[in-house]
Amino acid sequence: HDMFTFDPGFMATASCESKITYIDGDQGILLYRGIPIEQLAEKSNFLEVSYLLVNGELPTAQQLGEFSHAVQYHTMINESLLRFFNGFQYNAHPMAMLSGVVASMAAFYHDSMDINNPRHREIFAHRVIAKIPTIAAAAYKHSLGQPFVYPRNDLDYCSNLLHMFFAVPCEQYSVDPVAAQALDLLFILHADHEQNASTSTVRMAGSTGTNPYAAISSGISALWGPAHGGANEAVLAMLEQIGTVENVPKYLAKAKDKNDHFRLMGFGHRVYKNFDPRATIIRTMCHKVLAKLGKSDNPLFELALKLEEIALKDEYFVERKLYPNVDFYSGIIYSAIGIPQSMFTVMFAIARSVGWVAHWQEMIADPAMKISRPRQIYTGPAQRDYMEMSDRG
Ligand code: CMC
User: Fold this and answer.
1) Residue 24 carries which DSSP code?
2) Using CB atoms within 10 A of its CB, is residue 327 exposed (0-12), middle (13-18) or buried (19+)?
3) Do 206 and 364 meet the contact criterion of CB atoms below 8 Å apart?
4) Catalytic residue among 327, 359, 366, 385
5) pLDDT tens sequence across 142-157
6) Name one GO molecular function term (predicted).
């Protein structure tokens, strides 16, 4: 027993070395490849951030052009892959469809997937970044019973996503640039967050040498949970449940009650013990986006602001250093641009798939890479003999 350090939840164990993302949880600092998230949020766009995360440096104009072209080249999915959706009931959770269909990419795109071949790894990165939005949109269309909408490569990344989500063959549809810009910013903020549960899952699965599409699918499954990416969906459900400001004290009391499973969704973080810098950016953005969309009087946003204000003054939350996290306000923006609640975590998955790819690439190229194989502290019975059934009580 003494041979191993007991560290449930990996609170104090570094599982790898990484050059991708830096977090200082006490000071609320988040850097992608050394660059502050605030600067990227203000000046960059999601595809450029994707290049940065995957390749380590900001691209030149030519590099970005080539990267965008490579991603666009792969936006369509195999037609047979589309038929997969017919096997799902219309009300299947989109995260279940996403993880299933992304795992099936291992079957469709195995032709060029030798994990020891750097060019194959590059094509894998392009395919994931290009095809996950198409698969996500197909999942949404399936849930509505609407025809699938093919990607449009003349549109930027997020405009294309909105087009695939909301266009229908019988009507003219033009993407609202405010919505596309808001989505792009949210995607930048969600693109990576070092060794969170889903990224660690991708690394762990990938460390066995499995097909990387299968590893990405395992990341999607890990992200789905309400303690992780599923929190954005849960926040909106919670705000709807709370309903009005008058009910806030009642729900705060529930969140503090250890006999009650209710938690304040969108609050608290394993690493941030000060504010979550992403939440700060999103809160400001929420004001702007709602104003631009003419939805400033959004009652859920008003409620969220009030809830934050009251919780941040409450001793319980102060003592435990519980602040709003990235998911607290993101759902309000998704809603305002017309994304349904059940698709919020899928949005998170699209953005985070870039981080998963970057981490998988880093791990596979690392000569020190070993299969992930944690040890345990055994607490079961000592050795004993098999008892015949006739002797069992
Ligand atoms: N509401 C009420 N109490 C909370 C909350 C909350 N949201 N979060 C933590 N606590 C309490 C917890 O009960 C514990 O209290 P005590 O010390 O008295 O037992 C203390 O704060 C420490 O919490 P913990 O669960 O030990 O902390 P953790 O690092 O294991 O969990 C967390 C982090 C994010 C899972 C947790 O804060 C949580 O469940 N938050 C709500 C879900 C959420 O918003 N998740 C999104 C995280 S950010 C984006 C992402 O990762 O996808």
Assistant:
1) E
2) buried
3) yes
4) 327
5) 999 999 999 999 999 9
6) citrate synthase activity
Where do we find the tokens 């600067």? 39
Instruction: Classify residue 357 by its DSSP letter.
Output: H
| 3-state SS class at 326 | coil
Catalytic: 327?
Answer: yes
Output the residue whose Cα is nearest ligand 1's atom 29. 270
Q: Report the atom number in ligand 1 closest to the C-alpha of 263.
A: 1
DSSP assignments along 279-315, one per residue: HHHHHHHHHHHHHHTT-TT-HHHHHHHHHHHHHHHSH
ipTM above 0.90, yes or no: yes
Tokens matching residue 158: 């997020």
Is ligand 1 within 6 A of the CB of residue 233? Answer: no
> What are the backbone dihedrals phi and psi of residue 24, each rounded to the nearest 5 degrees, phi first?
-110, 105
Closest atom of ligand 1 to CA, residue 258: 13
| Residue nearest ligand 1's atom 17 by CA | 320
Give the amino acid at 65: G
| Catalytic-residue membership of 163 | no
Q: If you write DSSP's letter for every residue of 96-162 in order, what string do you get? A: HHHHHHHHHHHHHS-TT--TT-HHHHHHHHHHHHHHHHHHHHHHHHHHHTPPP----TTS-HHHHHH
pLDDT of residue 1: 55
Model pTM score:
0.95
Structure tokens at 301: 């946003």
Residue 173: other Cβ atoms inside 10 A? 13
Q: How far is the CA of 352 from the centre of ligand 1 (A)?
A: 21
- Strand-pair partners of 35: 32
- The answer to whether 276 and 269 have CB atoms below 8 angstroms apart is yes
The per-residue pLDDT for range 95-115, each reduced to its tens digit, is 999 999 999 999 988 767 899
